[in-house]
Amino acid sequence: MSANDGLPIFLIGFMGSGKSTYGKRIAAGLSYQFIDLDKAIEHGEGISIAEIFAQQGEAAFRRIEAATLKQITGPHKLIACGGGTPCFEDNMDYMLKHGRVVYLKANAGILSTRLIKNNGGRPLLADKTEEEIKAFVSSKLAEREAYYNKANIIFNAQEEKLSMLLHQLR
Ligand code: S3P
Ligand 1, from 104, 122, 124, 141: best to mutate by most atoms within 8 Å of Cβ? Predict the structure, then answer.
């Protein structure tokens, strides 16, 4: 039998926390299907996340994000969410109700360093200087942790072993 009868797993965390990398590893370890919510949105809309923000605005993106989350949720699926997913609409309540939520925690210093090195074309970071990215990450992370901390499991990849997380999820 697989993890908790295949209850969906939602991986949340700030931009740059490693949701794709760890999500793929966790999914492989549990024989789950890995799904990236941003990629599912891009596939569904036929344009990039940056284009959705530019053409339709963030509010429209959040509506599409919430709808897509609900479409792709299913058994034996690990969904790597966008950094803002738990903080909009009823997404966090929905995830807690329908599966298990894992917060991939990293501190503002680590996140800023990674995002300065590579902003990944993320619309919320576009045109920001290093100093602006640092300030943005600190304030947004502080604001979003109220949502992130509601997760069933908090995993700090810098301090904890992946094998322990897999054990908890099995
Ligand atoms: C966002 C994070 C992005 C993407 C969008 C908005 C956010 O996902 O959903 O650019 O609000 O933090 P990643 O966390 O995968 O970069």
Answer: 122
Host domain of residue 161: 3-169
Q: Does the predicted TM-score (pTM) go above 0.90?
A: yes
Centre of ligand 1 to C-alpha 5, Å, is: 29
Q: Domain count of the chain?
A: 1
Q: How many CB atoms lie within 10 A of CB 33?
A: 14
CATH of the domain at 161: 3.40.50.300
What are the pLDDT digits (tens) for 4-62? 789 999 999 999 999 999 999 999 999 999 999 999 999 999 999 999 999 999 999 99
State which H helix or E strand residue 79 sits in. Answer: strand 77-80
